[in-house]
Amino acid sequence: MTTEVVILVIAALVVVVTLTPYPFPRSPGDEEARADGRPIIYWRTGCSYCLRLRLALGPLGRRAVWVNIRTDPDAAARVRSVNGGDETVPTVFVGEEHRTNPPPSWVREILNR
């Protein structure tokens, strides 16, 4: 392969990982996620902060419930309700406690309980 082809393949992989839901576990809707009892991480496709959190959590991130606010209007409304009307993600809920764009260490601590 030529250098140009390798660069194009790498660029395509970067786009797929950062702009698609591929690195995120499939999730239930907002209502079902709330009933689950696990921490809920609200995210959206293309969010670099969401991707950073997902990568920082590694396999431990699968213990959380990931809800995409772009595909669930109820989830988007919940995020707006705690962020002054903005859809700022990642927003993490543990019960009724929430944090917006929390440090990965805080989320790891919650998931390790």
TrEMBL record:
Keywords, alphabetical: Membrane, Transmembrane, Transmembrane helix
Membrane spanning residue stretches: 6-24
Domain spans labelled Glutaredoxin: 41-98
Origin superkingdom: Bacteria
InterPro entries: Glutaredoxin (IPR002109), Thioredoxin-like_sf (IPR036249)
Protein name: Glutaredoxin
Organism whose genome encodes this protein: Nocardioides mangrovi
Lineage per the UniProt record: Bacteria, Bacillati, Actinomycetota, Actinomycetes, Propionibacteriales
